[in-house]
Amino acid sequence: MKFFVIIFFILLASSVSAQFSLKGKLRTLSPVSVKVTDLAGNVIAECMVKNGEEFRTEPVHIRKDLYVFHFGEYTENIILTDNPVTLNGFFNDKEPGNSSMEFEGIDLHLQFLEINEKCWGQMFDKDVFKSYAEEDQTLDPVVRASLMYCRKIFLGHDYEPFKRVLDMISENERDAQVVQFVIDEVTKRKSAALGGEAYNFTFVDLEGKNVSLSDFRGKLVLIDFWASWCGPCRREMKSLLPIYQELKGDDLVFISISLDDNEKDWRKLVEEEKLPWVMLWNKEGFPKGKGQNAIQKAYGFYQIPFIILIDKDGKTIARGLRGDKVREAIEKARNSH
C-alpha cells in the first residue's frame, strides 16, 4: 500500500512537551482496529476506528524509532517521534492497496520514503542505496538503520555494509530498537565476514556418518547450500560439475549441504544427480518465514543457493559465489598459496 502523505510543519513553543498520540478520522468499510507496536511487538497505542468517526489514542512518550502500524491484518513499518500524528482518509480493509490515507506529523518517515523511492527503478539499485545508507553523513541515525532493516533481504550476506552503517551511528544514538537490529546483525555477520574463522559444522553423510568442516583442514573447501525443492539450487549444482571436473585435486573438496526438511527428499535428489563430491544433510531444514536456522546464522545467509569458499586454514575467503565466480575464486585461492 502506498501512503499519500501530507506534512504540515507546526512550530511549537519550546516549553511544550510533546507526546505521541494518534488521532484523526477514517472512512472504512467496517470497524477496524488500528494500533502501533514497537519492533519487539509491544503495543504502544491502540484504538477501534469506525467509519467516519473521530478517534484518538492516549498520549504516551515514545523514543524516535521504527515502529509497526497495524490496520486490521495489514501492517506497515513507519518511523515515529515523540509527537502527535494525525491520520485521515480512506482505509479499505478488503483491499489495502486501494486505500488512500494522509498522515500529518511523520516528517522523518517522509525522508525515509523519499530515499527508498530513489533506490527503485525497474530493480533495487544497491549503489543508490549505499550512497545514502552507508555514505550520507547528514542522514538521521534512525532513518539510516531503518533503511537497513527494511531492505536487508536485498543486501546480500555481507558483514561490511552493516559494520559501515553502525560505525556512522554514534554511541549516544544507539538506543532505538532499529539501531539495535543493526548492532545484532553486525554481531551475527562478523563470524561470517571474509577472513574470519568459518563455523565448524557437523552433518551426516549418505552413510549416516558425521562429517565436520574441520575434517578437511589443509584443503580448500567449497560449500554449496541447497534444497531439492529449489530450482535455482539444482541448476547451480549442475553448473558446478564442469568446474569440479576441471579443477579437482587433492587440495580441493566440494561439499553440498542440503537444507531439505525430509531426509528422503535429500537422498532422492542425490541419487538422481549422482554428483561426485561430499553430500551432507542438515536435518534442521530450511526455516519457514523470515527466520534463520543455526547454519544460516553462522554463515550469515538467508536465501539459497548460497556458495562459499573456505581456505586451508579454515577461514572464509569468498562468499555468495555463482557460476564462473566459483572457478575464479578457487583459482585465486590456489595462486595465493
From TrEMBL:
For this UniProt record, the keywords arranged alphabetically read as follows: Cytochrome c-type biogenesis, Disulfide bond, Redox-active center, Signal
What GO cellular component term, any one, is given?
A: cell envelope
| GO terms for biological process, alphabetical | cytochrome complex assembly
Record carries keyword Signal: yes
Q: Does the keyword Cell membrane apply?
A: no
Q: Where is the signal peptide?
A: 1-18
GO molecular function annotations of the record: antioxidant activity; oxidoreductase activity
* InterPro entries, alphabetized: AhpC/TSA, Thioredoxin-like_sf, Thioredoxin_CS, Thioredoxin_domain, Thioredoxin_ResA/DsbE_sf
The Thioredoxin domain extends over 192-337
Annotated membrane-spanning segments are none
Where is it localised?
Answer: Cell envelope
- Its protein name is TlpA family protein disulfide reductase
What are the top taxonomic ranks of the organism?
Answer: Bacteria, Pseudomonadati, Bacteroidota, Bacteroidia, Bacteroidales
